[in-house]
Amino acid sequence: MSRRLASRLGLVAPSPTMAVAAEADKLKRAGTPVLDFSIGEPDLPSPDAVKAAGVRAIEQDFTHYTASPGILELRKAIADSYGKRFGLELKPTEVMVGPGAKGVLFATMMALVSPGDDVVIVAPYWVSFPEQVKLAGGNPVIAETRADDAFTIRAAAIEAVLTPATKVVILNAPSNPTGGLLPKDEAAKIAQLCVERDLWLVSDETYEAFVYDPADAVSMLSWRAQLGERLIITSAFSKTWAMTGWRAGYAIASEAVVKALVTVQSHDGSQASSITQKAALAAITDAADAPQAMLEEYRVRRQLVLDLLAEVPGAQCLPPKGAFYAFPDVRGILARRGFKDSVELCAALLREQAVALVPGEAFGAPGYVRISYATSRETIREGMTRFAKFAAGS
Ligand code: PLP
Q: 360 partner at 20 to 30 Å CA-CA among 77, 131, 178, 218?
């Protein structure tokens, strides 16, 4: 019995969003044009300055290993840009760059979580949070948000699930999949809670550039003085600058925590690609306005999706406050069409109408589906029209 996969693989499942995308891909390769809303992948191109910097890095032979935490210019640019925005003194040594937010979060879980630790995750959650916690040997403990509260993250929901074994709280606002936010007063209460209980607070702010009402925008960095070493911010170039394929994310934390993350990363992905790091630097220095232009495009698409979803019988959708996902309640469609759950619904929708959505089960929210509207307006129009036909059973 020696040649067996590690027992930890019994605890985790492959990324369900990637699985839907793979299924859609299979259909596409077989010649069926699929309208794909499954993956959180901006269809907008990376900004020209980013592309040019990548090409330049290759031409200038900047194609070798870099220091594991990232090149100093990039760490400094990240520290300076956050420092300016939040009125903080941030040092480059308080920043680690890694291969995407996913890689940085994985290093964070490996650095913070010991076997048996409880880690609070807010549901509906991004698919990789619980799986990464389990891979690190921890137990995901779920704090719920509610549709009738606009999926708002509340301190009380987190406090209600704390145990003596709780070590980490993970927040994600704007949330993937709900677009839910963290109001300032709740953020203050959560910071206070983490100080009182001496917990790590990991705030994944991957979608922070995409908040539809600027008055709602908040970063846990505003509570850095209070939280001190307990705070780890993670974010990425992936969505903010439409750079998903480049693989660049980062953490902002105390020097001691950054050192711990680098220890993990130095034995895992080593670093983000050297070429990508130059491109990421150009994103900050030469394409600072690009995210705002993308937000305006997402705002138009969001309205389009909401208008068209209003025509889908049995679907009910709140306007997402951030990110680029619609997350409708589809229990009415399950009832109308006699599906057992959203997994069955999504499989049938792909089969019958070649429209790919992700079932809510993947995010800990049965009865919902996730629709990424980081795709073209034409795709949204056609896809949602087909969804309406499907829901009506016609
Ligand atoms: N965090 C959240 C909430 C996400 O939705 C994603 C990607 O979908 C990530 C992290 C990972 O981003 P990256 O592509 O930079 O690894």
A: 218
For 260-275, write each residue's pLDDT tens digit: 999 999 999 999 999 9
Index of the ligand 1 atom closest to the CA of residue 40: 8
**Alpha-carbon 373 to chain mean position:** 14
Contacts of 24 (CB under 8 A, 6+ apart): 34, 36, 38, 350, 356
Which residues contact ligand 1 via a Cβ below 6 A?
40, 100-102, 126, 172, 176, 204, 206, 236, 238, 244, 249
Q: What is the largest CA-CA distance in the chain?
A: 60
345 Cβ contact list (under 8 Å, min separation 6): 330, 333, 334, 337, 339, 359, 369
Class of residue 275 by CB neighbours under 10 A (exposed 0-12, middle 13-18, buried 19+): middle
Q: Between the CA of residue 161 and those of 113, 198, 202, what are the distances in Å?
A: 17, 15, 17
Contacts of 229 (CB under 8 A, 6+ apart): 253, 254, 256, 257
Tens of pLDDT, residues 36-74: 999 888 989 999 999 999 999 999 999 999 999 999 999
Query: pTM (2 decimals)?
Result: 0.95
Strand segments, DSSP code E, in 219-352 are: 231-236, 249-252, 325-326
The region, left, alpha or beta by phi > 0 then psi within -120 to 50, assigned to residue 270 is left
Q: Which residues of 126-159 are buried (b: 16+ CB within 10 A; e: fewer)?
A: bbbbbbbbbbbebbbbebebebeebbbbbbebbb
- Distance from CA of residue 266 to its chain's centroid? 23
